[in-house]
Amino acid sequence: MIMECKQKENSAQCNCTYPGCSYHGLCCQCIANHRRCGELPACYFSAEVERTYDRSIERYLQVRKR
Fold first, then answer.
1. Which pLDDT score, from 0 to 100, does residue 1 have?
2. Would you state the pLDDT for residue 2?
3. Cβ-contact 60, 45 below 8 angstroms
4. Are 43 and 15 contacting, i.e. CB atoms less than 8 angstroms apart?
5. How far apart are CA 11 and CA 27, in angstroms?
6. Sign of torsion, CA 25 29 35 36?
7. Alpha carbons within 13 A on the beta-carbon side of 42
8. Residue 24 to residues 5, 54, 62: CA-CA distances in angstroms?
9. How many Å apart are CA 18 and CA 23, to the nearest integer?
10. pLDDT by residue for the chain (66 residues), tens digit each?
11. pLDDT at position 50, please?
């Protein structure tokens, strides 16, 4: 089964603020890209943390401990 990424629908919920992000609304590609980099996508973070662009797993765990 091949899933279609619904960019228009996903874009409305995407909280990524990185200017010019080519993956905005393309969740499958975004997750794959961040996974290659050892990071998590913006949707795992609050707006406050997301704006720092620190998408590291360490940052995610740090925030989750609060």
1. 59
2. 60
3. yes
4. yes
5. 9
6. negative
7. 23
8. 11, 17, 25
9. 10
10. 566 778 888 888 899 999 999 999 999 999 999 999 999 999 999 999 999 999 999 999 999 997
11. 95
Please report the pLDDT score of residue 3 as a whole number: 61
Bridge partner residues of 56 (DSSP):
39
Tokens matching residue 14: 């995407």
pTM for this prediction: 0.80
SS3 of the chain: the string is CCCCCCHHHHHCCCCCCCCCCCCCCCHHHHHHHHHHCCECCHHHCCHHHHCCCCCEHHHHHHHHCC
The structure tokens 């940052």 sit at 59
- For residue 60, give both structure tokens: 């995610």
